Amino acid sequence: MGKNQIRLLAMFLFVMVLAACSDKETEPKLVDVDLSVSPEQAEVGEMVTIEAKVTYGDEVVTDADEVSFEIWRAHDEDHEKIEIEHSGEGNYRLERAFEQEGTYYVISHVTARDMHNMPKKEFVIGEPSEPEESPSSSHMDHGDSEEDHSGEH
After folding, report:
1. Is residue 21 part of a domain?
2. Number of structural domains, the chain?
């Protein structure tokens, strides 16, 4: 390969890298929801904070079309759905106490920027009850669980 061919190849690769970089700037932004429960292990009657931090790219979302928390105790048919107002800096927060022991779940339903995101979290009040199996985890938030899943399922 001659020097001119090497220069031409190097210039071609440089242009391709520039094109790839510019494509990243035009990628569509997604609505991201960071759902947290604090504490994840609480006692009956203790205040629990459920919070969804909503962002769109680098922008905090203060004007979501809908934010609600769907909360239920494992294996209960009745799910409580609570509308949540913006509490500042892209955070949507609910503080409440639970009067029955067991394993609970919360799904945050967030609609903003014509997108819907619904991560799910598990938390425990007092003694845990039998957790639910999750045949479909398409809307669950993976990777944040610190629980041991090596037992029976």
Report:
1. no
2. 1
Euclidean distance between CA atoms 94 and 38, whole angstroms: 11
Instruction: Quote the tokens at residue 153.
Output: 């399922």
Residue 34: name the closest of 150, 147, 141, 132 by CA: 141
CATH number, domain containing residue 87: 2.60.40.10
Q: Any idea how long the chain is?
A: 153
Instruction: Write the pLDDT tens digit of every residue in 30-64.
Output: 999 999 999 999 999 999 999 999 999 999 999 99
Query: Residue 71: how many CA atoms within 13 Å on its side-chain side?
Result: 21
Q: Which of 92, 103, 96, 100 is nearest to 134 (CA)?
A: 103
pTM beyond 0.85? no
Q: How many CB atoms lie within 10 A of CB 74?
A: 16
